[in-house]
Write a structure and sequence with these properties.
Length: about 260
């Protein structure tokens, strides 16, 4: 069900990303202060927004799992966290490159925006080790959902605290987009944000399709293995019909067939 209309979605995502890159490099003007380096903004900021939204979605999916006990919601939460962690690594790498070119350092521990995002990433980095430390599948899914809900609630709280901070170097673009991103900058930013959201959704659906197909394959193998186990007594009963001779052999064969039935 996750693979339905996946190809058109992938093609749309590819077209949106291509258009974003073309407009960012050849249509959007260079920044007056940072020059060409500022164009990394169209990658860094949308990646960060999509990453945080992905973590929040994982928490909402975990709530649905605890309410319905449907394992599909647990898998949706798991894939969302896994994919958002990958996007988050891209945020940290692109942010460090931007910081080096803009501030002269790869990282600034006094900057609350950077440190808060790193804390969120470190928090979610413990998700998989904690999840797979539990062997029982039901307990594993339940505890993972509790973690996803708790961490997902921390994301918007942390965002608000950072926004209220006054000691920061990181630009506050989202405060007033029309003022901070005039004209072409704003158009390319919105297009980049849509493209990154489409990329996340496309990859999420690809992974969900893969895991759903894998689960169906494992279920089919278990069903086939069960059929083989059920047929084993019938095959073993056949030779017993020839064991011994006379009435004793007939009784042994009759008992075996009766047991097989």
């Amino acid at each position: 069900m996750y693979g339905k209309r996946l190809r058109p979605l992938a093609l749309t995502t590819f077209a949106a990303l291509t258009l974003t890159l073309v407009l960012a490099f050849f249509w959007a003007p260079d920044d007056a202060n940072q020059g060409f380096l500022q164009k990394i903004f169209y990658l860094h900021v949308p990646l960060a927004i999509v990453t945080l939204c992905g973590f929040v979605y994982a928490g909402l999916a975990a709530i649905a799992h605890l309410r319905t006990r449907d394992s599909r919601w647990d898998m949706r939460s798991y894939v969302a966290i896994h994919l958002s962690l990958v996007f988050g690594v891209g945020v940290l790498i692109s942010g460090s490159i931007w910081a080096k070119g803009s501030w002269g350092v790869w990282w600034d521990w006094s900057e609350p925006t950077l440190v808060s995002f790193l804390l969120i990433m470190l928090l979610y980095a413990t998700y998989q080790p904690l999840r797979f430390a539990i062997e029982d599948p039901e307990r594993q899914a339940r505890y993972a959902s509790v973690f996803a809900i708790t961490a997902g609630a921390f994301v918007p709280i942390n965002f608000v605290i950072v926004r209220l901070s006054t000691a920061y170097l990181h630009p506050r673009v989202l405060g007033d987009i029309s003022a901070n991103l005039p004209g072409r900058f704003q158009v390319v930013f919105y297009l980049s944000l849509i493209s990154m959201a489409l990329l996340w959704i496309t990859l999420w659906r690809y992974e969900m399709t893969s895991k759903h197909a894998g689960a169906q394959l494992r279920a089919l193998r278990r069903a086939l293995a069960g059929d083989e186990d059920e047929s084993m007594p019938r095959r073993s009963a056949v030779p017993t019909l020839n064991v011994g001779s006379g009435a004793g052999g007939t009784r042994a064969g009759g008992d075996s067939v009766g047991a097989a039935r």
